[in-house]
Amino acid sequence: MTVGRRTFLRAAGLGAVGAAAAACGATPPPARQPSTSATSLPPSTSAKPSGPPDWEALRGKLSGELVLSDDGGFATAKRAFNPLFDGNKPVAVAKCTKPEDVQACVEAAGRRVPIAARSGGHSYAGYSAPDKGLVVDVGGMSQVDVHGDQVVIGAGAQLGDVYSALATAGRCLPAGSCPTVGIAGLTLGGGIGVLTRKYGLTCDRLTSAQLVTPDGQLRTASADSESDLFWALRGGGGGNFGVVTSFTFETVEAPTVTVFSLHFPAGSAGDVLDAWQRWLPGTPPELWSNIVLSGGSSVSCRVGGAFVGSSAQLTPLLAELEATPSSRTRKTLSYGAAMDYFSGSSQRQTFVGSSRIITDPVDGGKVSDLAAGHQGMDLLIDGLGGAVGDVAPTDTAFWHRKALASIQVYAPATSANQPSARKSLSTVVSGLADAGAGGGYVNYIDPDLPDWKAAYYGDNAGRLDQLTRTLDPDGVFAFAQTA
C-alpha cells in the first residue's frame, strides 16, 4: 500500500508545512492609497464584451495545447490535486509554456469567462479549476535556473524539482514540504516551511517576479519597479489579479540539517502543547519545530522538527522541552536529503482543511479537547518566530509576522461524507478561535472561514483591497475570496 503524505508526516511527527499552497500561479491583490506608481491603471470604461471566447483563435496563438471540455483527455487536464474537486466544470484548459501564452489567454478570455491560473493545483477550495472558466495551466513554465546565489524559477515548477536543482547546486531556498506543491501558490501566500525560523518565509527571499496583469501586460515587480505590486506578491495570496510566470529568489548556502521526531504517551497532548508553546520562542532560529495532535477517542501527540546544525548542538535544546517523550528519533542529513525526508508521498489526497494562527499561547487542554472524538483529523501546528518576525507586518502583505505558530486543521473526506467532514472542521476551527487562536493562513484557504479577509490579511486587507480595485477594476481575476 502506498503511504499517503500526511500518513507519513503523522508517523514522523512532522506537519504538512506549506503543503497546501493556494497553488494558483496567479498573483494576489495589493493596495494602499490610489497610487501614482506604474502599477496604477485607470478604471475601465469599456463595455463588457459579449459572447464566449474565440477558442479556435486562442488555440492558434498558444505554443502549448488548448483542451476544451469536449476534447479527449479533458477530465485529466482539468484535474486538481484534491479529488473532491474533480466535479468542478471549467470549459477549457490552456497549457502555457511561455509568458506570451498567458497574455493570449487574458486577451481572449478576460471579462468573458472566469480565469484562474494553476501551478501545483493544491488550492484548498479548488479555486484553480473555476466552473465555466479557463484554467491557465503554467506547468509548462517549470525551469529552475541557479545563477550563483540567485535562482530563477518558472511559475509551474513544483517543490520537488526546485529542491533537487538547488541541492545539486549547493543552494537552499526555504519553502514547504509537499513535492507537488507549486512554487507560485506557496510564495504568493507567504511560504511557511521547515527552515522558516532560520531563513524566513519563501516570499522573504523573493527579489522579483514577472507576471501578466489583467490588462494583458507583462510586468516585472521588484522593490524598484511596481513596488506596490511587489509588496502584495509577498503574502497577499494567489489568484487575485494576475498570473505570475517566473520568480527570482535570493538563496543561501545549503546547510546540514538534523531532523527529529518525539512521540508522547496518550493523554498527554494538552500538557505537551503547553510545554511546546513555552519552549519554542526561547530556542534559537536555527531550530524549527511543529507539534501534531491527532484526533480520536484518545488524542495522540508528536513533536517534530529540523535544526540547522549538528545532532550534538540540538541535544541541549531538546532537553529544555518540559515534556518526556515515550520514543524519539534523530538523524543528520544534507539539505537535499532533509527535504526528501519531509516530502513523503505525492499521491492525490481527498480532504477538507482550514487554519488558525496562534499569536499568544493558547490553553493546550482546550485544544486537545477540540481534537477529541474527531477520528482522522489532525491539528498540524507549525512554529513561526525567528526570521519571520524580523520583518514588520506591514512590510509585506503577509500579516502574521508576530505569531507563535500556524495551525492547519486537516481531515480526510470523501464525496459522500464531505458535508459532515466540513461540519466537524468548522466546529474545530470555531473552537480554536474561542480558545484564542484567531486569524488564518491564506495558503490553507477556506470558503467557510468567518471574516476570512481580516483573518488572512489583518490590517493589510485595506491596502490589498485598494490595489485590487486599481489593478483589476473589471474583475478579470475575481473569485469568491479575492483579497
TrEMBL record:
Residues 85-254 form the FAD-binding PCMH-type domain. Keywords: FAD, Flavoprotein, Oxidoreductase, Signal. GO terms for molecular function: FAD binding; oxidoreductase activity. Gene3D superfamilies: 3.30.465.10, 3.40.462.20, Uridine Diphospho-n-acetylenolpyruvylglucosamine Reductase, domain 2. Residues 1-22 form the signal peptide. Its cofactor is FAD. It comes from the Bacteria. Pfam families: BBE (PF08031), FAD_binding_4 (PF01565). Residues 24-53 are annotated as: Disordered. Coiled coil: none annotated. Belongs to the oxygen-dependent FAD-linked oxidoreductase family. This is FAD-binding PCMH-type domain-containing protein. The lineage of its organism: Bacteria, Bacillati, Actinomycetota, Actinomycetes, Pseudonocardiales.
